[in-house]
Amino acid sequence: NNSAHLYSHCSRFWDGWLCWDETPAGTYASQSCPDFPTFDTSGEAHKAINTLTIWISSQYQSS
Could you report the per-residue pLDDT of 2-38, keeping only the tens digit for each? Predict the structure, then answer.
């Protein structure tokens, strides 16, 4: 009996800058940068989710 339980999605969460929707494991999510002072709103924010449904990285980039 394997006690490890794998999920198919990462839960929704707030990272201090943006709200991220539930996202499938083994994928990444992206959305426009928020409209905060000094932020380039033409850029995008990206987050990766590993196959164990853990948010593993963040990246913000200008377009």
Answer: 434 456 888 888 988 899 999 888 888 999 988 888 8
**What's the confidence (pLDDT) of residue 10?**
84
* Entry pTM: 0.68
Contact present, 59 and 34 (Cβ < 8 Å): no
- In the chain, domain spans: 1-33
Task: Quote the CA–CA distance of 15 and 25 in Å, as a whole number.
Answer: 18
CB contact at 8 A, 55 and 47: yes
Tokens for 35, please give them: 């409209």
Residues 34, 39, 42, 44, CA torsion sign: negative
25 CB burial (10 A radius; 0-12, 13-18, 19+)? middle
